[in-house]
Amino acid sequence: MTAFRRDLAIGVVLVAIAAAVPFLFPVRYVITQMTLLFIYAIVVTQWNLVLGVAGIFSLAQMALFACGAYATAMLGLYLDWSLWAAMPAGAVIAVVAGLLVGLACLRLKGPYVALLTLALAQVAYLVIITDTDCFIRTETRCEPFTGGASGLRRFGDLGLREWLGRDWIIGNYFVGLGLLVAAMTFSVAVVKGPLGLAFRALRDNLGYARSRGISQFKYQLVVFALSAFFTGLAGAFYAAHFKSVGPTIFSFSLLLLLLAMIVVGGLGTIWGPIVGATLVMFADEGLREVQDFRTLGLGLTLALFVLLLPDGLTGTASRLLARWRGSGS
Amino acid sequence: MDELSQETARSPRPLLVVDGVSKYFGALAAVDNLSFEVMPGEVLGIGGPNGAGKTTLFDVITGLDRASSGHILFAGDDITRAGPERICHAGIARTFQLNAGFDTLSVRENIEVAAIYGHEAPVFPGFRVRPVIRRRVDEALELSGLTDRATTPAGELAVLERKLLMVATAIVTQPRLLMLDEPVGGLTQAEMDAFVAMLARIRGEGMAIILIEHVMRFLVTLADRVLIMHHGERIYEGRPDDLANDRRVVDVYLGDGAADLIRAALDPGAAP
After folding, report:
1. Is the same domain home to A326 and A243?
2. Mutation test of the interface with chain A: which of B60, B99, B127, choosing the one with the most A Cβ atoms within 10 A?
3. Which residue among A300, B129, B231, B249 is least crowded, i.e. fewest CB within 10 A of its CB?
4. Which structural domain range is residue A266 located in?
5. d(Cα B181, Cα B96) in Å, to the nearest integer?
6. Which residue on chain A is closest to B61 by alpha carbon?
7. What is the pTM of this model?
8. Same domain? A180 vs A287
9. ipTM
């Protein structure tokens, strides 16, 4: 069995399982949390392109997610766009933001990229929460342009309630699943193809890669732009699904949660982000009873994986498999 | 054949012109007002003591470092200020002294990535490796004798294989000038012979070569012309067989023993 067929088979089985969940567990909470899992998994598969495959330590991913979310909300709210049109527009705006972040990081190395991207995300967060001027003013309410600390609401939704009734949430669930499948297919095509080779070559040895004709300038911008598209789209869908968007999506604990998903699953691997997103999401669910320990548990998990299993679960598993096959032959 | 083309056939234009190039690190001149030319198809050997500026010269020519002054022309184009990507596309491919490789990529992927991006910059590289690229990769694998190792990650290769892989990734960009930085340093005699055989095949295709090497037996048997550097300056340029008779070269670099060995290597009949 070729690697492609194996990956395809794994993908089909996972999609089949995910498609059965709303019918096996028709509980609103389960469906909502699974939809959230799809959204996070999309972000993580795309972040993995920059962080794992290209080896650029950008922490701006949730800021790009926020770009998609806020752009969608604002287009719906101020220009009365249908969210089906606002979502791809939000993704495109996230791509533009991704290009700017990539451009800013071009001359930086390692930890400096992390510092700059974190600072950029903080700036965006501060701009939003300190925005208190009334953009919409009526007798009863005053809403700032960005929604300020309380966020934006009443910008519409995907409109599935009209023909699915109470099952609109299952409709949204499948939109999320569809987006995840598209994002995953896209990232696999990128990683396995010539673009993935260029990103990995630049990561492994910059000077050598440039001497073989691979432009750092072009491909660093390309990887930021590519990874921003579905991240922005995930943000747009987040806004459309929850019908609200607020500055909490910039929170450090959420960033940590997503980072843990990549590290637990395996940086730079194909299935790592999906495996990591699922496991961390379930573990987080298990810790919900003991609120105080959630972030602590997350931090500890992250530290343990970095120290003991730096390749993550899928990386370690495939290495063990290779060793087992090697000793078998 | 008319008169003009006869004229160009007799004295073709140099492929590479290094014209008064200097590279300073602070007050230290690593390369000091150096000038030389390389003709198409020629093999130029560069030798000299450690710290003579040989690798810095390579870095400056291939765009990894900028010349402090002077000009570098390749096939008539000024490449003095060009970046390494553009210089690669212009037709210069180099290897590195510290066996560079894309360690997490397989041997085949190492060559593929050079084949896709090295010859000309693709506008969009697509999502599949094109058949024409695959064929060129197969040829480079065959030429370097790495076909059996195609799926091995480059990080797991032995020293000789890494050196061969670096040459394979250079060749696959279809350069007109190949620059080798200590290609056989650290290899055994048998491995060195394997390397010489491969270079002979490359030369047969008309590629010009500049090679830096401390193993003088290797340098003088391969090179058409030898340039010896010392403190960033040229102290010798000429035929390899006169090298051992140049007093200055023997004093600062070779020593009398090595000079005798070079004479022996060039003329096996007259062993000392």
Report:
1. no
2. B127
3. A300
4. 252-329
5. 5
6. A211
7. 0.90
8. no
9. 0.89
